[in-house]
Amino acid sequence: MLFRHLLRIRWYRIYNQKKSRDTLPSENESYSKKVKREMMVGFFIILFTLGLGLIWFIYGRNAMLFGLLCLAGVLVPALAIILLMKLIDYFLKR
Known about the structure:
Blueprint: H1 2-15, H2 23-59, H3 61-93
Helix pairs in contact: 2-3
């Protein structure tokens, strides 16, 4: 019973905090961008280390080097598209 009461008070205080409506979306947006960036970096780290490590373990060094070449070949157009989108976004916001 006491725990419910304390929890209710806590949520009431969080819900009724005086925050500017202008700062709240920018905080959420920056946090969202940070989380997305961290997840993408983590994905590529796992892809390169685990993926290439398994290729090396199963098929050998030459196959791993070829897999690295293929991943680099995929990464170049992907980065070019991301750069193009950033440039378009920059010019449209200007």
